[in-house]
């Protein structure tokens, strides 16, 4: 897994997380268990979880996941997200 900063975004701490192919479904299952099932937008072929501290967005293929942090987001919130994603810096 890797992540890249998204420079052309309204929030300066927006990242894309690129999952390993075999991790896509289990990762979305963990995210859904924690913050609820993703909402699907069939017109744009995207899915999104609006968590209290993040917005998690992807195409219907589930990879990569764009994470937009909300203002209330703390370092502990990011650590929890990274644990769910399986991301290590």
Explain this structure:
The protein is an alpha+beta fold. It has one domain (2-85). It has two helices and six strands; from the N terminus they run E-E-H-E-E-E-E-H. The chain has helices at residues 24-35, 75-85; strands at residues 2-5, 15-18, 39-41, 46-50, 54-59, 65-69. Strands 1-2-6-5-4-3 form a six-stranded antiparallel beta sheet, covered by helices on one side. A hairpin with a 5-residue loop joins strand 5 and strand 6. The protein is globular, with a radius of gyration of 12 Å.
Briefly characterize the structure.
The protein has two helices and six strands; from the N terminus they run E-E-H-E-E-E-E-H.
* SSE order: EEHEEEEH
> Whole-number radius of gyration?
12 Å
List unreliable stretches of 5+ residues: none
Describe the sheet with the most strands: 6 strands, antiparallel
Amino-to-carboxy terminus distance: 10 Å
Number of domains: 1
Q: Strand portion, in percent?
A: 25-35%
- Backbone structural class: alpha+beta
What's the overall average pLDDT, rounded?
94
List its salient traits.
single chain; 89 residues; alpha+beta; six-stranded antiparallel sheet; 6 strands
What topology emerges from the helices and strands here?
Elements: E1 2-5, E2 15-18, H1 24-35, E3 39-41, E4 46-50, E5 54-59, E6 65-69, H2 75-85
Antiparallel strand pairs: 1-2, 2-6, 3-4, 4-5, 5-6
């Amino acid at each position: 897994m890797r992540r890249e900063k998204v420079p052309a975004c309204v929030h300066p701490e927006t990242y894309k997380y690129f999952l390993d192919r075999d991790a896509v479904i289990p990762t979305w299952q963990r995210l859904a268990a924690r913050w609820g099932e993703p909402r699907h937008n069939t017109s744009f072929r995207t899915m999104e979880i609006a968590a209290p501290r993040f917005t998690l967005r992807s195409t219907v293929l589930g990879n990569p996941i764009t994470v937009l942090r909300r203002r209330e987001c703390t370092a502990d919130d990011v650590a929890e997200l990274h644990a769910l994603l399986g991301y290590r810096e």
